[in-house]
């Protein structure tokens, strides 16, 4: 049976949070007060989201404080078992 690849954190952030609200990476980096290159590394899967950054995302997108860390952990587990 063929498995469907798990979307990356960046794909989920872009498709489910940024695009529906019309938020660009530049605007999000500015709103969260994080460097754009760092945000781009998160969005492209080149670095993990640190807890302090995850809390900024959670506050901005009105989710629970652990939402993005739990999502990141779930993606990691799914890919490990893939």
From TrEMBL:
Pfam families found in the cross-reference section: HTH_3
HTH cro/C1-type domain ranges (all copies): 21-68
PROSITE patterns xref list: HTH_CROC1
GO molecular function: DNA binding
Family matches, as CDD domains: HTH_XRE
Record key words, sorted: DNA-binding
Keyword DNA-binding set for record: yes
NCBIfam families: antidote_HigA
PANTHER family, A to Z: ANTITOXIN HIGA-1
Protein name per the record: HigA family addiction module antidote protein
